[in-house]
Amino acid sequence: MRQEVVLAMLAKEPSHGYQLRARLREALGPLGDAMNAGHIYVTLTRLEKAGLVAVEVPADGADRSDRKAYGLTPDGQQRVAEWIAEVSWPKPDLAEFHLKLVAAASAGLADPLTVVDTQRRELLRRLRDAQRAAMAESARSNAALLLEGIVLRLQADLRWLEACEQNWTHRRSGS
Amino acid sequence: MSETADPPVLHARALRKEYGKGEGLVRAVDGVDLDIRAGETVAIMGPSGCGKSTLLHLLGGLDRPSGGEVLLNGRRIDNLSEKALARMRRTDVSYVFQSFHLMEELTAVENVELSALLAGCSPRTARRRAEELLDQLGLAGRSKFLPSALSGGQRQRVAVARALSNEPLVVLADEPTGNLDSAATLDVLQLFDELHEYGQTLVIVTHDARIAATADRMFSMRDGVLIDETRLTGGTNGKLGALVGLED
């Protein structure tokens, strides 16, 4: 996860580490379980060194790390604004799978259709897991929306596998 | 152990269905072996024209095979008389269709009780059972509605309630989410999940990966043949985060 994400989650108000984690968990639902708490604290320390967040000392003056509240510095606010405006999108690595099929077929390493079937099994299992998680969430929650994104992407991948299968079936019967 | 001890609810061997002859011969189902055990949800997936609907019709006695055999609870159904077949379709198997096939002039509860009435149930018992089913499927307040007053997802729920009203050994569903939008699809997936929990045996043919993914086992069908079997239970728990870039 990029450090800008952690930074942006602090934009609403200065927060303790545990509040930040709770906010991420609320937004991610069951996917947040995978989040490494240590990673967040490491990121906060890095952001502090980079001058993007500043520690706000609690009123009672205690300096225990779990009592530290982090807030954005002006540089941090600037970075968040840039990040929000930035256009980025995760790149699905379709070329690798595509080349796997090409290599398997041309060198006779494996039947491309078997490779497609194996891949489909894995994607269907993931789809099943994502759907089960989606069904367990209330319909309008943040987590349900994220899970819907996963379900839709997996559907798109499965449709592409169908196209791969048809194409390679056609090539095999044509040759 | 139990896998070998329990006889399958549905058993098909070397099942074939051909149409036409000579040059025009179409092998819609071309040698299918299939065992479905009680309480299982099995999906059969494939592109349109692969023979999956024909296979479903053979399994449920809606159509007769050109060869091979089908056993329902250990009893052969491929060679039953028309009369015995009609009785079996009323009591032992139920269908859920893509287009719901509800009677538009009957209310939800009347649609649901119809098959129980046809199976010889008393009107009072049929009505009580229909009301119970609609209640269980979350349609209690809509039992007096006509299908036209219900959403797509609700209509499919009524169709499923009707399918359950004769307590069938197996429910056969043909593209049950075919006419539904994304939200209504999730509704039907949830419903099938509930049926599965309840122990209902389900066979679903579909080209919708979402509904196939809810099954215990999935078969891919091409040109009349089952080409691949996938067991979907015991999947990839805990790795969901990897799908959104939260984990490696």
TrEMBL record, chain A:
Gene3D superfamilies: Winged helix-like DNA-binding domain superfamily/Winged helix DNA-binding domain. Residues 6-81 form the Transcription regulator PadR N-terminal domain. Pfam families: PadR (PF03551). Transmembrane segments: none annotated. Coiled coil: none annotated. PANTHER family: NEGATIVE TRANSCRIPTION REGULATOR PADR, TRANSCRIPTIONAL REGULATOR YQJI. This is PadR family transcriptional regulator. It comes from Umezawaea endophytica.
TrEMBL record, chain B:
The keyword Heme does not apply. One of its GO terms (molecular function) is transmembrane transporter activity. One of its GO terms (cellular component) is plasma membrane. CDD domains: ABC_MJ0796_LolCDE_FtsE (cd03255). It comes from the Bacteria. Keywords: ATP-binding, Nucleotide-binding, Transport. Residues 10-248 form the ABC transporter domain. InterPro entries: AAA+_ATPase, ABC_transporter-like_ATP-bd, ABC_transporter-like_CS, ABC_transpr_LolD-like, MacB-like_ATP-bd, P-loop_NTPase. This is ABC transporter ATP-binding protein. It comes from Umezawaea endophytica.
